[in-house]
Amino acid sequence: xxxxxxxxxxxxxxxxxxxxxxxxxxxxxxxxxxxxxxxxxxxxxxxxxxxxxxxxxxxxxxxxxxxxxxxxxxxxxxxxxxxxxxxxxxxxxxxxxxxxxxxxxxxxxxxxxxxxxxxxxxxxxxxxxxxxxxxxxxxxxxxxxxxxxxxxxxxxxxxxxxxxxxxxxxxxxxxxxxxxxxxxxxxxxxxxxxxxxxxxxxxxxxxxxxxxxxxxxxxxxxxxxxxxxxxxxxxxxxxxxxxxxxxxxxxxxxxxxxxxxxxxxxxxxxxxxxxxxxxxxxxxxxxxxxxxxxxxxxxxxxxxxxxxxxxxxxxxxxxxxxxxxxxxxxxx
Length: 332
Ligand SMILES: NC(=O)c1ccc[n+]([C@@H]2O[C@H](COP(=O)([O-])OP(=O)(O)OC[C@H]3O[C@@H](n4cnc5c(N)ncnc54)[C@H](OP(=O)(O)O)[C@@H]3O)[C@@H](O)[C@H]2O)c1
Description:
Layout: E1 3-5, E2 12-14, E3 18-19, H1 34-46, E4 51-53, H2 62-74, E5 79-84, E6 86-88, E7 93-95, H3 99-113, E8 118-123, H4 132-144, E9 148-154, H5 159-163, H6 170-180, E10 187-191, H7 203-210, E11 213-217, H8 249-254, H9 256-268, H10 275-284, E12 290-292, H11 299-307, H12 315-322
Parallel strand pairs: 3-4, 4-5, 5-8, 8-9, 9-10, 10-11, 11-12
Antiparallel strand pairs: 1-2, 6-7
Helix pairs in contact: 1-2, 1-11, 2-3, 3-4, 9-10
């Protein structure tokens, strides 16, 4: 698989990563299987992916333990990116950016991941009660201590900023400028996909101009862009899509032209090419610093997603995707 650099020149990863979240979090719990998930991680590594994206809060903790089982056997094949800063409570998820907490969280992640160094340590959410420079300073000390190789910032809470009338990532860019004064950012993680392209406005260019990598989260639109979900199929109450405004039967039907467009492009590249692969290849075309992290707990989809790195979209393909209707249904 093609390799891409994220941030500092020494951080090289397969162009497509693996999002491990669906193995332990966010989607229907009854469909999860530990053994199936392990097969998916191995399949992705075998197919040339190296970046495994996890977080201490996925599970919580279960996802890191699962990744740790693989790292124990093949640490040299993997680039592990995890996150700290969100605590899962009985009813709420809260941010914690206190320096002492961040250091404890890192030690706990290292133990669960069964490794002595985390390749990319990301701040999952900034804590509004703690100046971000203090949190970032603690993370920089982890680099100095050799427990972490590089730092990243997640910008997934940005929709609320847009609701408040600002550009979706304005506040994130301000945070990035602040933490850069403390220690270099190697990578930013935010939602980016054919149906959620907002990060292309400011965030992706900000990263490109500073040599910062960009991890595209939710690159398949939580599965929608693969075309394997049927409008009205419904989701279990524990699945985020049960509350997601784009996953009502009405909105899934209204957004079918986007899937149809991806399928049209896929057909031009051969019978075996899928809409999901076109969605990932489109992301790879947004800049050499962009690494999509499609999430899956199934080996066959991990392999399919990795194969998207071989797909080269043409100018005609990009133009056709650019002309697709904007997604309907939003959090705004
Ligand atoms: N930093 C953050 O706050 C944050 C937030 C969200 C996500 N993320 C990261 O981004 C990663 C990706 O996001 P995501 O997993 O939510 O969304 P996604 O990658 O857009 O979509 C995942 C969904 O698509 C399905 N899928 C995957 N490959 C497929 C294929 N080839 N054909 C059909 N369906 C396919 C998966 O099904 P199965 O589950 O059944 O395999 C899963 O339900 C996460 O794993 C996580 O690492 C980070």
